[in-house]
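FORM 7B: Structural annotation worksheet

SECTION A. Query
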Amino acid sequence: MEGDPQVPLDDSPQAIAARHRKTWLVLGGVVAVVAVLLALYSFFSQPPPPPGSGHNLSAKQIGNVVVPLVGRLESIGVSGRPQFAGLAVTTATGEMATTCHSLPPGGQLEVHFIDGKSRAESARVNRPLDMCLLNVSTTGRETAKLRAGDPANGEKVWVVALDDVKLPPYLVEARVVNLISEPNGLAMKLEAKQEFASGAAVFDTQARLVGIITNPHRYGDFIAALSISRLEKARENARK
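SECTION B. Predicted structure
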């Protein structure tokens, strides 16, 4: 009731100790909650490992890395109407790689990214390797991390598909079935649920570029990709 005298605080050693324990338990609980929240924030806010760091990335993380690197090639002929000429992937500053057989013999070449387009010119054409390097002006994008060795049989890879320039590229899971050796270099037999345009980039689970789709090809009735090792051969032959 109002006006009742307050109960005096128990100042016995046992009561004081109990109050101290309660205070420290509350403070300990608050510190533990804060520590958990900080750990969760650090875990979810830290950037993913970079490509080729030895850590496998999720499909979403790989997509974030590779989407800015790929483009859709279009050839502008005398009629002025654009013609699809395959896909390409950024392999160095101002440089993109694609298959030679998908490029038309003449006309202006443009590469369309999800956020714009650039003019492209054939810089190094190596038809025996079927690997063509393009000079692309003002790409302003990072380059793909190239894998030093070829993937093993049964290894999972991701192919970047781009069906419509108005839609973002997307990843399709694939698997390496077999490596094909020939005088001009290695190729890979892939297993996937869909076909891909020539020049589509193939990445491993560490977001490293391992190959480029070739379509059509002479290897047989299956999906095939040219090993990225042909890119270095094309560069070496161009320097000779």
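SECTION C. Observations
The chain has one domain: 60-239. Helices lie at 13-45, 59-66, 229-239.

SECTION D. Sign-off
Analyst initials: ____
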